[in-house]
Every structure is written in structure tokens, then in C-alpha cells.
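Now for a specimen:

…
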Amino acid sequence: MSDKRSIVAFDCGNSSCRVILGNYENGKIITRIIKQIENRMVKFNEYYHWDILYLYNELLDGLKTIVKEDIKIDSIGICTWGVDFAFFNEEESMISNPCSYRNEHGNEILNALSDETRENLFYLTGILSDRINSAYLMKSLLNNSSLIKNNSKKVLMVPDILNFFFTGVQLNEPSELSTTQLFDVSSKAISKEACEVLGINPSLFCNIPKHGERISNLKDIVKEQLEIDYDIPVICVPSHDTAAAILAIPSNTANFSFISAGTWALIGSEIEKPIITEDVISNGFTNELGAFGKITLLKNSPGMFIVQKLKSEYEAEINKKISWKDIDKMIMESEGKDIPLFIVTDSRYFNPINMSNEIWNYFIQTNQVKTGKKWELIFSSFNYSMACNFAINLEKIDKINNKKFESVYMVGGGTQNKILCQLTANIAKKKVITCGKESTSLGNILSQIKYFENEKTIEDLRNIISRSIDTTSYYIDSNNNSILNSYYDLLNKKEFSNG
């Protein structure tokens, strides 16, 4: 069988979605962005929603572009962010657009649970009780909406929704399902016990396919819209973007540490079996399902969302668009000055109305601001503070794994921030190996290659990545103990913390 394929990956993130064409030939993948789609939450009444029909139409338009280039599509796979979902009725109609995890309603359910119940849920599922887990917003919506309570027959996660729109088949992909905290990562099935604890009917969930399997072919109506007369299989890939990105790390070892730096920063290690211990829960880690049955032991931490909001606020203040290079120049101008720090995991930075005001007010509150330009200090502080957060959690990963990782792989859009990458190497005292921002798409494509070449192992797939991408290594070039010590000092000052 020829290994020449034209494979489409949908890579949907919080801020943008992309249609990526992967040309797979001679054991290498070359990717090309076909279409980039802006994605944003829509506030309607008291809830933030995602406009899923708009996203579906734009993804379909991306497929039309490929077809118009006279390219025969061999397969399609869909990846998105985690935890968000929508309910469907008996007629398989979506009851409302998916709600965003940025809503606070699920947090109200979590706050009502005792510490004992939260710990019990962790031991039932391997997943840490966290405000963004789907289970809590699901419960809130079922409690507060009679329409949803009385009409819901199935629940689909965001990538499941898109798979359903394209194929007509309702399934729950397992890596995405693990972000609900209703999925047992050990048995790889819905935890009926966890569902019972939270009062959620397990019958809401669908069959769970395996990675590398065909979900179905594109629906006939979709083929008509594309004006094609051949079938295109839609493949079950690791639909949670983190799981897909970690699959595309070109490591030649079975156990490694990573940072997936996107809207969220996921800091962790890939392991064979979940680690469900007091040490994991006390350090705030969780066991999500990765690609092909692997486990990603990770800490879900704030990421580039903070600096994306800062950039948009700065642009609004100066009334013009700027590039990330412009921001880097501002940061370089602050070199040699005392850089204030802020605790990136503090709840005040979760989704504030004005991010820069929150950070600046924290600097004032903690007596860190003396001289310097506001925006230079804020942008610099983001890099230093984020690198400290990375370093602290990488140290915890070493401890939990009982292993010292000398290097860490970094994937996602954050890899373009060279200053952050170098600071992470210096403060964490580890070599940082960046694998580019296309890791999610590449992991998506690898899973589709597995469909065509089932004999390939994960090691074989990662060898394809090694041949397909260039990596960049950042070595320790200075000692930043004082910065990390200052960050620890702020962490220990409870009077300045919102938890």
C-alpha cells in the first residue's frame, strides 16, 4: 500500500480554529494551513456559549477549499479544547449551543462538595476535582434548566458534536471524555459511581470508540455540499488537543515530561498507568487519558490566555494592532530592572474584566512597583511568573514520578515565545526542547495514519514526527534562583492570594 496520503486535521482552540492539510509521503508529514477561523465565546443572558454551527460551517468551507484545489481527501480527524459539551434530545437535535468552561455556574456545584467527596471522585476516576471539569457545569445545567433536564438524552463533547455533524454518528471520544471527571481512566469507561455521586445519569453517554478507528464516512449531504462522489472516512483521533499534541512529541523514551503551552498550560509527564495517590491529589495533578491508552499525568494551569488578554487590552489602549515582536521589544527594554511577579494560578486572573488592571493592582498591593513603565513591567512579569510556575510544577512531576527529568518537551503556541522558553530553562534548570506550534495537528494526523497502517506502534508514529519537524533546544544560560525564591515568597503570603 502506498503511504502517500492527503489527511485533514481540524485543530480547534479557544481563540482560533484551523483546517490543516497534512501531506504524508515517504515517512514524513508536511502540513499546510488551509483556513484559519476566529473563535470566541458569545455572552447570551447569563452564560458564555460557543457558536458551534458557525465553526462547523467554517470547517466545511475549509474542506471545500481543499476540494477546489483538486486534492482527493483520504481522511479527516477532529481535535478541540477539553471539557465543553452540549445536550441532545431524543430526535438528536442540539438543545442549546455548548456552554463555555469560563462560566462560573459549575464552580457553585464544586464548592458545595465536601473535601471527602472531592477526594472520593479523584479515587473513582483518577481526575482531580477542578472548577472547569464538565461534570459540574453539566449538573448545574440539569439542575437549573427544565428544558435540559426534561429533554436531554445524550451529551456530546465539542469534538463529538463536530464528528456528529459530519457523520451523523453520536459517540464519545475517550481522551475528551476523561476531562469530564465522569470517566474512569483505569477502566477506560464511564464511572457509574462518579455519576451517582453527582446525580448525573450515565445513560447520557454514548459508545466509546478507540483511537485510529473509523467513526463513519462523511454524510451524503456533506458530500453533496463538497461536490464529491467518493467516501471520506472520519477517524477517531485523540480529540482533546493536549492528548493529540503529546502524541506528536518526538521522544524516544517511554516516560518524559512536557509543557503544552496554549490557552491553558498543561505541565506533566506521559506514563503507562494512572498514578492515583495522595501525593498526586495534594499537588493538584490529574490523570487524563492520552493517545492510544497512554496517560498524561498533568497539572492544568493558566497559559497564554493571560498574555492574549493583555495584548488585546494594550491594543485597545493605544488604538492600534501590535505584533508579538513589538511586545518582545518592550520586554527587552525592561531588562536589568526589578521585575515584579504575580501568581498566575490565582483565581483573580481566571477571566477578569480587565487583566492588566488585576495584575497592576496586585503589584501595588504587594509593594512590588517602584519605577518603570506599566506595560513593559506587566509583559515582562508574565514571562517570569509563568516560567516560575512551570519550574515549580516540573519539580513536582519529578517527585511524583520518582525520577529526575533532565529535559522537558514544550509544544503549542507558547513555543514561539523564545523569551519564555529560555526563562523556563534557566529557572527550572532543565533543557527545554520545543517541538513547534503544530503538535496538535500532527498528533491528529498521526492517529489517522494509524488507521491506514494499523501495524504501526506509537514509537513508529513518533519516528515519523522526528523526520517531519525541527526542534529547538534552550540550554541553561544563567542562574535564576532569586526569581524563583521571590515567587515562592508571594505564594506563601496568603493575605495576597485569592486561592
Notes: DSSP finds 19 helices and 19 strands in the chain. The mean pLDDT is 94. The two ends are 56 Å apart (CA to CA).
